[in-house]
Structure formats: structure tokens, C-alpha cells
Task: inverse folding
């Protein structure tokens, strides 16, 4: 193993701290403190283990959390943006579109329309070879 | 000409528990969760870096695709945790092991260096075990 088990535990705990607190303002100093490393040392270790910087990881989990909120609820995009820890609606929307190819609002419409179709017409989403065995016409 | 695998099935003892393991613990994404009127649930998930391969979390409930003997045989294998699901890729076995252990996931073996990388054996809690491997860097 490249690092001691204790180092892994500390970095993993910090990563899980990011997961649990992504909606709060989180800085490198704060997260590295959780792992009891200097910010420089923590940044190096985290990047080596997860193949992305702590900031890149935080951005990724925030975007994923936003996608989940957009799929499941009807909160405004502004509310979603703030709920997942982004401070600027403009930078959130730009980043969201860059990562997903569509704006947050377009993503919500696409996903909710698909979910509606899955609920109302499930047989359009289940392979016929299988659905027919389970009694579909 | 066959060019790709698009779906594969893991039989599971309990779809809700499987959902919890694959989605909430491993971080897989739900692709389709469709329920037929008769209760059959078509639940597929995808790994974060492999959205094109749908994994069907298939219940072992009574169904016309397998007779009762076959169904019982599947169920018995799953209850004994004997179904080997495959190899899960991780960029860092030790970190993923520590995180999943903290989330209550059960392992059959701890990470160990092998000639092909670092590997541990993880259970999905629904009857399947997997090698979780960090491939050796060339």
C-alpha cells in the first residue's frame, strides 16, 4: 500500500466529511483540519488517493446533489444552487451546463418527463422478452 | 455482429437492500426503476464511470422464467452468499475499503497485494460477493 492505514483513515474521514457537509461553505483548511494534516499535505494526499483535488471533488459532489434535487423536487434553480453550497447562480449554471450538456432547468424537465413516462408506461422501459414472462401483453 | 454488453443481471435476495448497497453505499446511479402493475420491478443501476452498462438487480421472486426448483436453487446460493458477481474496479482499494467499512459494508477479506493489483472481497449483503480491485499500474 502506498500509505499507512492511519493516513487512509484520516483522508477517508475528511472525504466523508465533504460528502456530509457539501451544502456548507467548505474550505481546504477546514477539511484538512478534520484529517489533522496541513492543507498542503492533505491536498497532496487527497489528490493522490482520489485522482482529483479536494476542490474538484467537492464541485463534483455538489453538482451530483443538485442533479438529485432537480430530478426529485420542484425547488427553484436558485434554491437548488444555494442548497448544494454554490454561492453564485451564474457560475453554478455555467458549470452545470459544462458538465451535463444542458442547463439545470432543461435537465429537470428532461428527467422529470422521463420519470413520468417510467411511472405511467413502465412497459416502454422493460425489455419485452422479460416483461412478457411477467404477464405483459 | 455483437459489439457490446449493454445489460447484465445480478440476482438479489431483496431489491430494496440491493438499492441501498449499490446506490447509497457504492454510489452507483439508478438508470431505470419501473414497476409493472403485477408488482414486478425492473431496477437497473450503472457504475459512475460506466453509464452504458445497465446492471439489472433482479429479484428471485416467483416468476415464469424459472420453475420453483430453479428459483429455490438461486435463493439457496444467495442465502449462502455464494454467487460471485464479478470484479469491481476502484482507483484506490484501501480508501474505498475504509469508506465502505465505515458505512457498514461487510468484507470477506481485507485489501491485499496480488500480482494483478490490490484486492479485497466485498459482499453486497444480498447474496453476491465481488472482488474489489485496484489494478496494478503498468
Result:
Amino acid at each position: 500500500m502506498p500509505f499507512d492505514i492511519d493516513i487512509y483513515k484520516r483522508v477517508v474521514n475528511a472525504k466523508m466529511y465533504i460528502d456530509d457537509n457539501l451544502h456548507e461553505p467548505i474550505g481546504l483548511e477546514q477539511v484538512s483540519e478534520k484529517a489533522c494534516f496541513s492543507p498542503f499535505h492533505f491536498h497532496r494526499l487527497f489528490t493522490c488517493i482520489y485522482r482529483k483535488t479536494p476542490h474538484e471533488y467537492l464541485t463534483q459532489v455538489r453538482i451530483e446533489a443538485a442533479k438529485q434535487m432537480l430530478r426529485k423536487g420542484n425547488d427553484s434553480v436558485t434554491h437548488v444552487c444555494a442548497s448544494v453550497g454554490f454561492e453564485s447562480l451564474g457560475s453554478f449554471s455555467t458549470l452545470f451546463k459544462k458538465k451535463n450538456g444542458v442547463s439545470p432547468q432543461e435537465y429537470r424537465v428532461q428527467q422529470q418527463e422521463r420519470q413520468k413516462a417510467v411511472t405511467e408506461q413502465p412497459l416502454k422501459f422493460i425489455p419485452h422478452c422479460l416483461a412478457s414472462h411477467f404477464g405483459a401483453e | 455482429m455483437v459489439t457490446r454488453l449493454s445489460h447484465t443481471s445480478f440476482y438479489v435476495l431483496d431489491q430494496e437492500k440491493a438499492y441501498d448497497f449499490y446506490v447509497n453505499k457504492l454510489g452507483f446511479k439508478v438508470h431505470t426503476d419501473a414497476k409493472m402493475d403485477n408488482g414486478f420491478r425492473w431496477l437497473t443501476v450503472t457504475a459512475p464511470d460506466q453509464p452504458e452498462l445497465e446492471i439489472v438487480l433482479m429479484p428471485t421472486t416467483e416468476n415464469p422464467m424459472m420453475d420453483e426448483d430453479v428459483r429455490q436453487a438461486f435463493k439457496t446460493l444467495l442465502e449462502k452468499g455464494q454467487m460471485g458477481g464479478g470484479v469491481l474496479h476502484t482507483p484506490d482499494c484501501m480508501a474505498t475499503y475504509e469508506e465502505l467499512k465505515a458505512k457498514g459494508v461487510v468484507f470477506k477479506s481485507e485489501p491485499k497485494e496480488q500480482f494483478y493489483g490490490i484486492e479485497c472481497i466485498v459482499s453486497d449483503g444480498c447474496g453476491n460477493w465481488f472482488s474489489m480491485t485496484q489494478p496494478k499500474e503498468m
In short: Chain A has a mean pLDDT of 94. DSSP finds eight helices and no strands in chain A. Chain A has two domains: 1-51, 65-137. The CA atoms of residues 54 and 120 of chain A lie 41 Å apart.
